Amino acid sequence: MFTIKSEVQFDMAHYLSGYEGKCSNIHGHRYRLIVKLKSETLHKEGQLRGMVDDFSNFKLALKEIEETFDHKLIIENNEEGMKLINSLKDLPMEFQIYKVEYRPTAEEMSRDIFNRLKKKGLAVCEVELFETPNNSCIYTEE
Ligand SMILES: [Zn+2]
Questions:
Q1: CA 105 to ligand 1 centroid distance, Å
Q2: Which has fewest Cβ within 10 Å: 36, 80, 111, 123?
Q3: By the 8 A CB rule, do 4 and 55 touch?
Q4: Which first-to-last residue range defines the signal peptide (predicted)?
């Protein structure tokens, strides 16, 4: 079995609706995303001969994930989230907001990222998303 991995980092703020405690405030993290692709065999011909996948394809896909979330405020698309979005719209400054259909925890985000990469045709087997240097979520489909 061959596994290749690559990593990107991004800064992101999130709001966890329905959460009580310190993290109920809008706050941010420096996220570290590590993705693994696996294959039992290597490509046998052409440009990809001897490879699981071209690292430049792989890195491009991770760059797109990075750009989706980097320096954005991530808010869940529900009633509470929409109230927050609407109140931010009343302010004179403009915030880069990205709505998601889930509570933006490391767990939900790692599953979302896994599915986005899978949809692109990558042989993704594991997504690990660090929310802090010590805490991460690993999502696999096994
Ligand atoms: Zn957080």
A1: 7
A2: 80
A3: yes
A4: none
How remote is the CA of residue 65 from the centroid of ligand 1, in Å? 18
- Six-digit token string for 102: 């889930």
**135 within 8 A of 30, measured Cβ to Cβ:** no
- How many helices (H) and strands (E) the chain has is answered by 3, 6
Percent of the chain residues past pLDDT 90, beyond the cut: 90
What domains does the chain contain, in order, with CATH numbers?
A: 2-139 (3.30.479.10)
pLDDT, tens digit, for every residue of 95-118? 999 999 999 999 999 999 999 999
DSSP string for 79-142: HHHHHHHHHHHTSSS---EEEESS---HHHHHHHHHHHHHHTT--EEEEEEESSSS-EEEE---
30 CA to centre of own chain: 12
Instruction: Just list the catalytic residues.
Output: 23, 71, 131
For residue 123, how far is its CA from the centre of ligand 1 (angstroms)?
A: 29
